[in-house]
Amino acid sequence: MKNKFLFPHHYRRIGWMIFIPSLVLGLACMYADFRFSFLEFDLIIQKSLFDSDTLNFTDEIASIGLIISLLFIAFSKEKIEDEWISNLRLESLQFAVYLNYAVLILQILVVHNTAFFDIMVYNMFSVLLLFIIRFRAMIYIQNQD
Questions:
Q1: By three-state DSSP, how is residue 66 classified?
Q2: pLDDT digits (tens), the chain, 145 positions
Q3: What is the Cα Rg of the chain in Å?
Q4: Distance in angstroms (rounded) separating the CA atoms of residues 89 and 132
């Protein structure tokens, strides 16, 4: 089966090379309040919309890097792309979406206030992470037989 929406196989390696620094940068932004000074810009628009008169785009760069890298890792072709792999991709994606939203519903009921914002930040990446974990695990299990 020809799937025209997959990246070439070598994009997976590129994805991993982007993922590691983006993950480190993202965690540093969230937990150590790390910011690159060269990504700081003065605001010209109304100050009342924002907490300060400057914006720093370090966390946006980390988020975009994580999204792009996870897309490259998740949706790069396998060396042998056949019907079984296509079916496994579909099942893994379906599993990831169901599990992600089941966990999100539970978090909506349990987590409140500012901690909920952190949950939503992690939720942006969890579908792709769950998909990659299940897809790779199923391929690993199949190759062990």
A1: helix
A2: 567 789 999 999 999 999 999 999 999 998 998 998 888 887 666 555 555 667 888 999 999 999 999 999 999 999 988 899 999 999 999 999 999 999 999 999 998 888 888 888 889 999 999 999 999 999 999 988 7
A3: 19
A4: 9
Backbone angles phi, psi at 37, to 5 degrees: -70, -30
Long-range contacts of 74-77 (CB under 8 A, 24+ apart): 74/128, 74/131, 74/132, 74/135, 75/5, 75/6, 75/7, 76/6, 76/7, 76/8, 76/9, 76/10, 76/11, 76/12, 76/15, 77/3, 77/6, 77/7, 77/8, 77/9
pTM of the model: 0.85
- Report the distance separating Cα 30 and Cα 95, nearest Å: 28
Query: Other C-beta atoms within 10 Å of 9: how many?
Result: 13
d(CA 38, CA 23): 20
SS3 76: strand
CA-nearest of 88, 94, 99, 83 to 138 is: 88
